Amino acid sequence: MLGTNQVFWKLKKVFSDVASIYYNFKTNLRYVTELQGKPITHICADLKINRQLYLRYLKGEVFPKERNLDKISTYFAIDDALLFLRPADFKGTIGKI
Fold first, then answer.
1. What is the largest CA-CA distance in the chain?
2. pLDDT in tens, 17-70
3. In whole angstroms, what is the distance from residue 86 CA to residue 91 CA?
């Protein structure tokens, strides 16, 4: 898997601004979180990530460090780069997995 910085800079070339990257990430993370069908508290316990920090990811206030991004993508069984796709593209891709 690519590191957080590698993913970010590859996507920076594709997207016109950082705000769209944050928007895509938070929207897609919220989508897979809801698909899981578990309370956020349980997901955070499984991930061993502080719930308040995870909520900040969901709000797009902060971006996860590489270690937490890896935990999240592994937990949801998706490649970390998919979390940065445009939400419509992401939902189409997830529906095929």
1. 36
2. 677 888 999 999 999 999 999 999 999 999 999 999 999 999 999 989 999 999
3. 9
Q: Look at phi and psi of residue 64 and say left if phi exceeds 0, alpha if psi is from -120 to 50, else beta.
A: beta
Q: How many CA atoms within 13 Å lie on the side-chain side of 2?
A: 15
Predicted structure pTM score: 0.80
Say which residues have a Cβ less than 8 Å from residue 66's Cβ, sequence separation at least 6: 3, 4, 5
Q: CA 4 → CA 21, 44, 52, 61, 64, distances in Å?
A: 12, 20, 21, 16, 8
Give pLDDT, residue 19: 76
Q: Are 17 and 80 within 8 A, CB to CB?
A: no
